Amino acid sequence: MPRVTCIEPDGHTRTLSVDAGSSVMRAAVAAGVDGIEAQCGGLLACATCHCYVQPPWLDRLPPPSDDENVMLGNVAAERRPNSRLSCQLIVTPALDGLTVQFPERQS
Q: Which of 35, 72, 76, 103 could cross-link with 9 by S-S, CB 3.0 to 4.6 Å?
C-alpha cells in the first residue's frame, strides 16, 4: 500500500497508508489531517483541499487539468508553482512516499 506524508500547517508530519486509486484528499480527510477542509468532497468545485506538492514529486504527477487550474485560481492561501488540489492527486504505487504540505488556511 503506497504511503503519503502530509505536513500539517503547524509542521506536524503524518504518514498515511493509502489504497492505490484513492485521492490524497480522501485519505487525508479520513485520517483527520489538519489543514484540509474538502468542502465539495472531491468534486473539483471548491479548492479547499489545496496543498503544496514537495518538489521531488512534481515531475511524477500528471499536470493539472484545465479545470484544476481554474480552481487553483480560487485558493485562499498563496498559490505557488507546486500548488495542487489534493482531490486530483490519485495515489498509485509509483507515488509511494509522496509528500504534500497543507497551507495555513483553505477558506
A: 35
